[in-house]
């Protein structure tokens, strides 16, 4: 592509930042403009619920690159620049402040938006959502020693916040509507095990809890002072944290007439049905050749590697995005890694006793085929587990469960 061309990226998060880097690394010599709606240069979000929230990590650790990097590589990062409309005919992005940026190719890295809990009292002060660096700063200030913190939602973000709040000396309650925590990510048996790990550290984990509303404090009616559930139970709170999931931020793409289906629909290179527009990260629904179906992923991995593939493809170096979905969560002293995206399974194989000190893994099998795996403090299982999923292996279940048989041996025998 000509050095006079302009590539515009809508989104200043991890996907937007990594795509810009990949374009330059692939040899694109034209203009790159990254539109970041937040007043921050590109950064990644995982530390926001962990090190940044506890204060153990400096905020500077979240940024992908220094300001000098962008200057040296000719990448224009416009902070506080929110896109309002895409003019596909004129090939320009209209910002909400009236500015317009022309493009030859455009990348949508708009990520996801928080789902809000539609209950009475949801607009009270003291009800926190965690998505941005500013959110993490505000919540960190609220997690004072002795504070009563009620977390609505027992997904891995909610549990990471719970662990961080305990570290800061707070009294923590987690209210989860499902029968166990991390129900979207884990088998119920492992979810129940994690709930017990939190309870052992003082977290009051309540499952089957249906939140009906937030009640104001008698002495400060503008602030939340309690969470009320449908069964009449009330949980006093100095701070309420809501983590009930996200949805893809497809509004800009939908207004532009791009095909969307629980995400912006793209091909293996990140291209939409408009050949000049690409998308990457949480916002996309894309083909996964390993799983054999279209998926949407909300993960660090997807924001990193799909963005790199799309950036290279936009620089005329076509790059297929092909991965086994991988996620991780750090809670207290436990590192949980998750592989695959199983839609169902008929057998769980536990490798080792569920002991975080020694580490263990859980494999999900369907008709004998490995379709997913979890590892707790057992990172060495990830590479062979990934290969088992990639190859649709049918390992011997007894050997898979035996810590005395190496996973390399299991993998070799299954091949």
Write a structural description.
The protein has helices spanning 14-25, 51-54, 67-72, 133-142, 156-167, 188-200, 251-255, 300-314, 382-390, 397-401, 407-414; strands spanning 6-10, 31-36, 75-79, 83-87, 92-95, 100-102, 105-108, 112-114, 127-129, 148-152, 171-176, 204-207, 211-217, 220-229, 234-236, 239-242, 246-248, 264-265, 277-279, 284-288, 293-295, 326-331, 334-340, 347-351, 360-366, 369-376. Helix 1 runs parallel beside helix 8 and helix 9 runs parallel beside helix 11 (407-414). With 415 residues, the chain is of the alpha/beta class. The relative contact order is 0.12. Helix content is 24%, strand content 30%. The chain has 11 helices and 26 strands. It has 3 domains: 6-113 and 247-314, FAD/NAD(P)-binding domain (3-Layer(bba) Sandwich), CATH 3.50.50.60; 127-244, FAD/NAD(P)-binding domain; 333-414, Enolase-like, domain 1 (2-Layer Sandwich), CATH 3.30.390.30. The strands form 7 sheets. The protein has a 5-stranded parallel sheet with strand order 3-2-1-7-19. It has a 5-stranded parallel sheet with strand order 9-16-10-11-12, with helices on one face. A hairpin with a 4-residue loop joins strand 20 (284-288) and strand 21.
Jot down its keywords.
single chain; 415 residues; alpha/beta; FAD/NAD(P)-binding domain; Enolase-like, domain 1; 3 domains; five-stranded parallel beta sheet
> What is the tally of helical segments?
11
How many individual domains?
3
Strand residues, percent: 25-35%
Largest sheet: 5 strands, parallel
**What's the CATH architecture name of the largest domain?**
3-Layer(bba) Sandwich
End-to-end Cα distance, whole Å, is 43 Å
CATH H-tier superfamily of the largest domain: FAD/NAD(P)-binding domain
């Amino acid at each position: 592509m000509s050095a006079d061309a302009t590539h515009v990226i809508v989104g200043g998060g991890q996907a937007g930042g990594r795509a810009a880097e990949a374009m330059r690394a692939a040899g694109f010599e034209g203009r790159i403009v990254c539109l970041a709606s937040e007043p921050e240069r590109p950064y990644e979000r995982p530390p926001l619920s962990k090190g940044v929230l506890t204060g153990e990590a400096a905020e500077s650790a979240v940024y992908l690159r220094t300001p000098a990097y962008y200057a040296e590589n000719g990448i224009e990062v416009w902070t506080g620049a929110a896109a309002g409309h895409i003019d596909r005919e004129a090939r320009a992005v209209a910002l909400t402040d009236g500015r317009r940026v022309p493009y030859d190719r455009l990348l949508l890295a708009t990520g996801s938006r928080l789902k809000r809990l539609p209950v009475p009292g949801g607009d009270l002060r003291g009800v926190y959502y965690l998505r941005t660096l500013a959110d993490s700063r505000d919540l960190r200030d609220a997690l004072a020693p002795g504070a009563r913190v009620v977390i609505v939602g027992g997904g891995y973000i909610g549990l990471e916040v719970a662990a961080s709040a305990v570290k800061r000396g707070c009294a923590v309650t987690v209210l989860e509507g499902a029968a166990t925590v991390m129900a979207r990510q884990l088998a119920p048996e492992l979810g129940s095990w994690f709930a017990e790990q939190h309870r052992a550290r003082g977290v009051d984990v309540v499952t089957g809890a249906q939140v009906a509303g937030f009640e104001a404090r008698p002495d400060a009616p503008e602030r939340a002072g309690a969470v009320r559930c449908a069964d009449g139970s009330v949980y006093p709170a100095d701070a309420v944290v809501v983590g009930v999931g996200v949805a893809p931020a497809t509004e800009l793409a939908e207004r532009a007439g791009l095909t969307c289906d629980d995400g912006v629909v793209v091909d293996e290179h990140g291209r939409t049905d408009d050949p000049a527009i690409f998308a990457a990260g949480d916002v996309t629904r894309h083909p996964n050749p390993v799983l054999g179906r279209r998926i949407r992923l909300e993960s660090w991995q997807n924001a990193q590697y799909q963005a790199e593939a799309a950036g290279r493809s936009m620089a005329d170096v076509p790059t297929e995005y092909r991965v086994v979905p991988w996620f991780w969560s750090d809670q207290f002293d436990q590192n949980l890694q998750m592989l695959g995206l199983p839609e169902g399974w008929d057998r769980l194989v536990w490798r080792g006793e569920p002991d975080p000190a020694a580490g263990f893994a859980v494999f999900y099998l369907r008709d004998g085929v490995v379709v997913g795996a979890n590892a707790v403090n057992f990172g060495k299982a990830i590479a062979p587990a990934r290969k088992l999923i990639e190859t649709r292996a049918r390992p011997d279940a007894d050997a898979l469960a035996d810590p005395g048989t190496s996973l390399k041996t299991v993998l070799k025998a299954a091949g």
